[in-house]
Amino acid sequence: MFYKSLLSGFFLFFFSLNSFGQQTINSSIIHNGINREFIMYVPASYTGNEAVPLLFNFHGYTSNASQQMFYGDFRPIADTAGFIIVHPEGTEDNTGITHFNVGWGSSSVDDVDFTRAMIDSLTSTYNIDETRVYSTGMSNGGFMSFKLACELSDYIAAVGSVTGSMTLGAPSMCNSTHPIPVIQIHGTSDATVDYNGSIFSESIQDVMDFWTNFNNCDAVPMVENVPDIDANDGSTVERFTYGNGDNCSEVIHYKVTNGSHTWPGAPFPLAGTNYDIDASVEIWKFVSQYDINGKIGCTTAGVEETNSVELTMYPNPAHSQVQIHGLSQTSTFELISVFGECVLEGTINEILNVIDVTMLTKGMYFLKIEGGVLELVIE
After folding, report:
1. Residue 200 backbone class (left: φ over 0; alpha: ψ -120 to 50; beta: rest)
2. At CA 59, angle to CA 153 and CA 93, rounded to 5?
3. Cβ-contact 335, 365 below 8 angstroms
4. Cα–Cα distance between 298 and 292 in angstroms, integer?
5. Max CA separation in the chain (angstroms)
6. Which of 11, 283, 313, 317 has the least C-beta neighbours within 10 A?
7. 3-state DSSP helix/strand/coil percent for the chain, to nearest 5?
8. Domain co-membership, 271 together with 330
9. How far is it, in rounded angstroms, from Cα 173 to Cα 53?
10. For residue 308, what pLDDT is reported?
């Protein structure tokens, strides 16, 4: 559940003070005879002169588009990274509860085709990079994102899920046409979508195993302990990275020990919310690395352009300068934005190894150097 009764007062208050004005657009289309609504967020930086990514952000069961827009908030990220967000509105089931049809109960609404129709409509109006369409969501919205990965993969480049899973039995019917990079964030104490599976959901480990196998990733993950930044939130986080998949795809799992059915980093401090990570930041950092063909910077042979030399960057994220260590010679570099544009280039070596990024906007970049690609976040 989305703790609707507790949150509704917050959302009514903040929505009435919405400072995003003309950038927030309430829209709708007629689909299968039903008026389907969605809320768009278009950052001020959008001009229409260049194609931008599109991110779907699906709400949870019982929730709605406006609640998800505030709770699982990507708008500050979109303001710097320059992508458009769509918050779809679910329909009511036979009990009057809003939902997306992921195979539960008796719902007959075709939300997969509704998503396709939204994409077709938006790409006819906005300059959308059709190779960089992503989906994420909370709970039922996470289930929906996995359903799109299986049934609308010709449109979807990568997906993320927070407190969601795959509908029980869905992996055996999945028909993705290309490797799907996946990021899953889930609490071990989730009482709504059980971490270990239920009568309607696959276990989180089974979901990870399915996508790891489907993408031909490493079966054994690299495991890292995320710094326990907030010792008072009652939870800790481990990151599991299944790398080296086809088209340089990865499967990432943030396991939130003692985490509840909540969005990590959310602005509303519900019980069981983790604050060591920000789910919105982690999801965008992950999905934005990919287009429909795989990881940006991945060679056509399917092997990521990585260095034979162990290059490291510090600090990362960076604010004003970043140092590159492990250079074997004087090397030229290019810093590429998530739009594929070269924003900075130059020459460095092991002694003069500092890159000044003061003038660059916040966001994710790709550093191409010595035949390799390193990811850099500027804050």
Report:
1. alpha
2. 95
3. yes
4. 12
5. 68
6. 317
7. 20, 30, 45
8. no
9. 28
10. 40
Peptide bond preceding 88: is omega within 30 degrees of 0, i.e. cis?
no
Domain end among 295, 327, 354: 295
pTM attached to this predicted model = 0.78
The residue among 295, 320, 343 that closes a domain is: 295
- Reduced to 3 states (helix: H, G, I; strand: E, B; else coil), residue 327 is coil
Q: What CA–CA distance (Å, rounded) separates 271 from 274?
A: 9
Nearest CA to 52 out of 11, 89, 81 is that of: 81
Whether 15 has a pLDDT exceeding 70, the answer reads: no
Mean pLDDT calculated for residue range 168-177: 97
Confidence (pLDDT) at 300: 44
Is residue 303 assigned to a domain?
no
CATH code for position 231: 3.40.50.1820
Residue 304 is assigned to a structural domain of this protein: no
- Count other Cβ atoms within 10 Å, centred on residue 171: 18
* Whether residue 110 sits in one domain with residue 199: yes
CA distance 139 to 213: 23
Other CB atoms within 10 Å distance of the CB of residue 223: 11
Partners of 378 in the β-ladder: 318, 363
Same domain, 245 and 318: no
Q: Are strands 52-58 and 321-325 parallel, antiparallel or unpaired?
A: unpaired
Q: What is the DSSP string of 168-191?
A: TTGGGG---SS---EEEEEETT-S
- pLDDT computed for residue 302 by the predictor: 43
Q: Cα 35 to the chain's mean position, in Å?
A: 27
| Encoded amino acid at 324, one letter | I
325's CB contacts (< 8 A; 6+ apart) are 311, 312, 313, 314, 350, 353
Picking from 10, 9, 61, the residue whose alpha carbon sits closest to that of residue 266 is: 10
- The whole-angstrom separation of Cα 132 and Cα 52 is 8
Is 47 found in the same domain as 196? yes
Q: Give the H or E element holding residue 113.
A: helix 111-125
Report H helices in 95-174. Answer: 111-125, 140-151
Q: Which helix (H) or strand (E) holds 280?
A: helix 279-287
84 shares its domain with 226: yes
Summarize pLDDT for 95-115 with one digit per residue, the tens: 899 999 999 888 999 999 999
**Does residue 302 sit within a domain?**
no
